[in-house]
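Protein Record: Sequence and Backbone Structure Tokens
======================================================
Tokens: labelled as protein backbone structure tokens, with as many entries as the chain has residues.
Task: work out the structure tokens from the sequence, keeping to the layout shown below.
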Amino acid sequence: MTPRPDNILCPTEAGLYCPPGDFHIDPLRPVPRALITHGHSDHARPGHGAVMATRQTLDIMAIRHGEDFAASRQAATGPTRIGGVTVSFHPAGHVLGSAQILITPDRGPRILVSGDYCRTPNPTCLPWEPVACDVFITEATFGLPVFHHPDPLVEAGRLLASMAEFPDRPHLVGAYALGKAQRMIALARAAGHDAPIAIHGALQPLCDYHVAQGIGLGPLVPASDPGGARLILAPPSAFASPWVQRFRDPVLAYASGWMTVRARARSRGIELPLVISDHADWPALTATIRELAPQEVWITHGAEDGLLRWCELNAIPARPLRLVGYEDEPE
């Protein structure tokens, strides 16, 4: 008898668990063996026995959690046999080192865990790769029709236009330390900003790692001594701390897909909302399901009900996983 998908991968309180391989994917609590899709801290937690991930994700976890973040680690370098399944890692286009994980059993459906993914070109990581599968597990962070993300280079152009309009006001951009900050810097460079960019100290280690990986970010200076730098990047939490008071009359900006919702921008006191996301928007989510044409779709962390309804209307078997604990990168 061919195993059902639930016999190969199933949701548990600790996260997705693969019984024939005896491992979890992006577990929510310490487990004996974890496969990690990417380095954001809602997916990559410390304290596991053994961790398998891309080499870059392992490096990022060490930067964020210390070299002893797991008892042992293994870099994913190709198809690997674990128990009764073969696993392989494929680029997700989300952040540096991010991967989709394909589980291929000896018999039964191939299950693709997408983690977080983005199909918009991103100069700071490998592009998303389509992977044939029978069951596709998709995120639904922006799983509602309202979320249509604009061209990120156009949004970077809006930032530079604001800097030209208000030359005497420093522009502070809130951006997550892993992925968004480096992408924002790369977009500003692509839009024509060649001057030094000041960065909050919390961004420095991961910016240094991106540069070491061959990703050019141009001249960066510490925000503690910005000199003449008029563009400053910081984690969003800095906007609610005394740190921000060192800047006179700043233009507060925030780079996030959530800036589509103007009420969120207003509630944060954001003057310049920049709709720049490292997740798939509604058109990309639905296009990906159509293109992969899986036999079944499982939906997790996000607007599950909206994407579930779309699948129902398009006669695509789907189910919500109702996993809790996955959110945007904590601030």
Q: What stands out?
A: The chain has a mean pLDDT of 95. The two ends are 47 Å apart (CA to CA).
